[in-house]
Amino acid sequence: MKKSKNKEKSKNKESISELADPRMSIKRNGFEKPKRIYRYTPTAADRKLVYSLAAYGAVNEDISSAIGVCKASLVKNFREELNTGRAIAKNTIANRIYQIAVGREAQLDQVTGEVISKAVPPNLQALIFLCKVRLNWKETQVVEQNVEMKSAGVQIYLPDNSMRIANDKS
Known about the structure:
Layout: H1 2-19, E1 25-28, E2 31-34, H2 44-56, H3 60-67, H4 71-77, H5 79-102, E3 107-108, E4 115-117, H6 124-134, E5 154-157, E6 164-167
Antiparallel strand pairs: 1-2, 3-4, 5-6
Helix pairs in contact: 2-5, 3-4, 5-6
């Protein structure tokens, strides 16, 4: 009887394994259970949230935890929203820095001649920053050091050619 039961069990296992996809099942205690597969379908509200968080400068890890998906699913399902949101954020920041750097004139009401907004002078630090970032300008500093060796008996051996430099007063 034991042999017949074992044969029946092995036949059942074979039939289950033939029908089920091996990637879709987990073997536990000799039995196969189907894996639970959760497929995420993005909604319009999720797309809007991802776009706004990306535009505010949030990183993928924070955005994925806000929505409740893994980072891979976030990138897979929301690639366009992530890219356009970050592009809009970069453009807004660059535009604001440019406005600060250049400054603006006072705006007057055409009818009454009253000042609507005050003049803002150009900001030199913002101009320097824009030139460094956009125009690849660099600041170079030359540092001069005057070091005198006043200690007696200092010897330096160079490994390249075993040349000896001595600074002794004897």
